[in-house]
Specification:
By secondary structure, the protein is an alpha/beta fold. It has four helices and seven strands. The chain has helices at 36-63, 122-132, 160-169, 200-206, and strands at 70-71, 74-75, 110-115, 136-137, 141-142, 151-154, 194-198. Strands 3, 4, 5, 6 and 7 form a five-stranded mixed sheet that branches. The protein has a two-stranded antiparallel ribbon with strand order 1-2. Mean pLDDT is 75; it is low at 1-28, 96-100 and 211-215.
Length: 218
């Protein structure tokens, strides 16, 4: 009588001859001798599945439009070139207004000369001088006052220019001409449009060669 299970005879628990009553070594789930075809198929399925998942995840990003490239911190579409603005200045007028002063003819200017100094005959000398310049002169008189600086008056509003002409002929400053409201220090204008009051400044220039201190010598 043989001993069962010693592994040396047929029909034992380790019998690989395919005897009945025992599973073959290849069908055991933990058998290290499992055929490689089944494990390779599982890996292939796993790889295909992973590829499908990755493709699904990448599909939305593949269909999106590319992002705009940002340079210098400002999107290219947002940058704008500075606009050039041209401002037209109004044309400056080159028209020059010229005021023309028409000189009054000396013959139309009636001048009365009054002596306001103690130098005899000085008013007559000034009268003769102005007559030589073409002015219409009247007989010289004595002034009611004594003056150091000569003065020129005009009797009507339109005689201001005439008074300036007389002052220029006598080489007196324009300030010598008094205002229209000023009253000449004479007893009578005697029809004169311009009255010259001779002061000491003119007396030194127009004093006659022989002088006296009498009042009669205009």
């Amino acid at each position: 009588m043989s001993e069962p299970g010693n592994g040396s005879g047929f029909g034992g628990p380790y019998d690989v001859s395919g005897g009945s009553g025992h599973e073959s070594a290849g069908s055991h789930p933990h058998d290290p001798f499992e055929p490689p075809e089944r494990s390779g198929l599982a890996r292939g399925v796993a790889i295909v599945t992973l590829g499908v998942i990755v493709g699904i995840l990448l599909l939305p990003s593949a269909t999106r439009s590319p992002l705009a490239v940002v340079q210098g911190g400002t999107p290219a579409a947002a940058r704008q070139e500075p606009s050039s603005t041209t401002t037209s200045l109004p044309a400056r007028s080159t028209t020059t207004t010229t005021t023309t002063t028409t000189a009054l003819a000396p013959a139309k200017i009636h001048v009365l000369v009054a002596n306001a100094t103690s130098v005899n005959g000085v008013a007559g000398s000034v009268t003769t001088f102005l007559g030589g310049k073409g002015f219409a002169t009247l007989t010289a008189v004595n002034a009611l006052v004594k003056l150091t600086a000569s003065q020129i008056y005009f009797t009507t509003a339109g005689s201001g220019a005439a008074a300036s002409e007389v002052a220029s002929a006598l080489e007196l400053a324009p300030a010598t001409v008094q205002t229209a409201a000023a009253k000449p220090p004479v007893s009578s204008a005697a029809g004169a449009s311009v009255i010259v009051i001779v002061g000491s400044d003119l007396a030194t220039r127009f004093a006659p060669a022989s002088t006296t201190t009498t009042v009669k010598g205009h």
